[in-house]
Amino acid sequence: MNSRKLAIITILIALSIGTNYSMISFYNVKFMDLIVFVGGFCFGPLAGSLIGIISWAVYGTLNPVGFSLQIWLSTMFLEPIYGIAGALVRKRLNPSKLGELKNERVMTCVFFGILGMFLTFAYDLVTNIVFGYVYNINILIAIIFGFVPFGLVHMVSNACFFGMGGVPAINAVLNVIGGENPGISKK
Q: What is the per-residue pLDDT for 97?
């Protein structure tokens, strides 16, 4: 890995942590998941996973909301699903064909939004189960009360962030590293 790519990965980690702290008053509305997805898309599953793990390692340890070892570990090791998904999406997309038609750009944004929502559902499901276990709450109750309203807010915000921000963020990172621009925002 060259120094430019390493610098961008480090910036993505810092951006992930910094935006989490700056958005602390908006519970479950964070750019971290999108940043990890973009890291995975642009740099592969290992880099995307490391962005998620390191971001949660710092943010979870110094979390203004409080610290719980089990919840911290679950979030730290679940966050990589976004980076892995980003890498898998990159493998499945044909970068040279995307963005040639306006409808393809729109469909890519819709796909990213739906993907972000489903990834967040899986993430929240597991973290709610861990929450119930840690605080000795019935798992079903923890899941229900975890999703309403917190999980719903998380899923809707991620659907919006992934749908509206995924394509521009990926293009920006790929332009900076000089990689193949997938063209998903071409006119």
A: 52
